[in-house]
Design a protein that fits this description.
Largest sheet: 6 strands, antiparallel
Strand content: 35-45%
Helix content: 10-25%
Shape: globular
Order of helices and strands: EEEEHHEE
Oligomer: single chain
Strand order of the largest sheet: 4-3-2-1-5-6
Distance between the termini: 48 Å
Number of domains: 1
Number of strands: 6
Structural class: mainly beta
């Protein structure tokens, strides 16, 4: 069954653990590659950054946030200052499905919604 043109949603379950000053480990339980993956999210003083392929692909977009950064934002609501802990969160990503119109091949393309966070141009933590 092929999806109809419109919007579809995908949910991602993640565990976020604070592992240092402004540093978080994010374990994606149902990653897009089909198996759990772990990434590091760090706040550099101006924005959160992640070492996942999606963030690296969009690193020059100063307002972009991957799903792991979104998970950290969500988890921060649960963290208590001075207490190291972990939180399981769920992130929903929307995908826009569109048909290739009159080309006759019936193919459909999916385009993922880009989450945007207003921040300055990044200073990458792994370049320091």
């Amino acid at each position: 069954m092929t999806p109809k043109a419109g919007v579809s949603e995908r949910r991602y379950r993640m565990v976020v653990a604070k592992v240092g000053e402004n540093k978080y480990a994010v374990l994606s339980l149902n990653s897009t590659n089909g198996k759990p993956s772990q990434y590091v999210v760090v706040y550099n003083g101006s924005r959160f950054q992640c070492n996942c392929p999606d963030f690296l692909k969009h690193v020059d977009e100063p307002y972009y946030a991957c799903k792991h950064v979104q998970a950290v934002y969500e988890a921060l609501r649960w963290f208590v200052e001075g207490v190291d802990m972990a939180a399981e969160v769920e992130i929903t990503k929307k995908q826009y499905v569109r048909s290739n119109g009159g080309n006759g091949n019936g193919r459909q393309e999916e385009e993922e919604e880009k989450p945007l966070l207003i921040e300055k141009k990044p200073r990458l933590f792994w370049d320091e």
